[in-house]
Amino acid sequence: MSTSPLDPPSGHELLVVRPSKWTLVVVVQLREGTMRFNELRRNMGGVPQKSLSQTLRELERDGFVTRTAYATIPPRVDYDLTELGREVLTLADDFHRFAQRNREAVEEARRLFDAVDARPSA
């Protein structure tokens, strides 16, 4: 029986990161340092509060972000990248450069796909 290169090695767990739509945006926002939840939300524009909360929780769980809560009124919660999070930032920067470099090719592929997809089915 053959195995795919994507199959996890026998007896070992494979690290799986399931980024949300907002994962890279949050990581890039935290590039400048510690931010509060509402500051992040404001800087990110249209992100729904629930989506940002879920994304931050997943990033914290995976070890990419630290969350520091202060017992103040009103409560204050700060978020910051860990060393692992800074490594993800490197990936985000690489992806951004890839997207810039290949934007026209992707747009052309979409145009071709949409032209074929728009034809009536036989």
From TrEMBL:
InterPro entries membership: HTH_HxlR, WH-like_DNA-bd_sf, WH_DNA-bd_sf
Keywords, comma-separated and alphabetical: DNA-binding, Transcription, Transcription regulation
Gene3D superfamilies registered for this protein in UniProt: Winged helix-like DNA-binding domain superfamily/Winged helix DNA-binding domain (1.10.10.10)
Domain HTH hxlR-type: 7-107
Superkingdom of the source species: Bacteria
PROSITE patterns, per the entry: HTH_HXLR
Sample GO molecular function, one term: DNA binding
Entry keyword annotation includes rRNA processing: no
Keyword Zinc-finger: no
Entry protein name: Helix-turn-helix transcriptional regulator
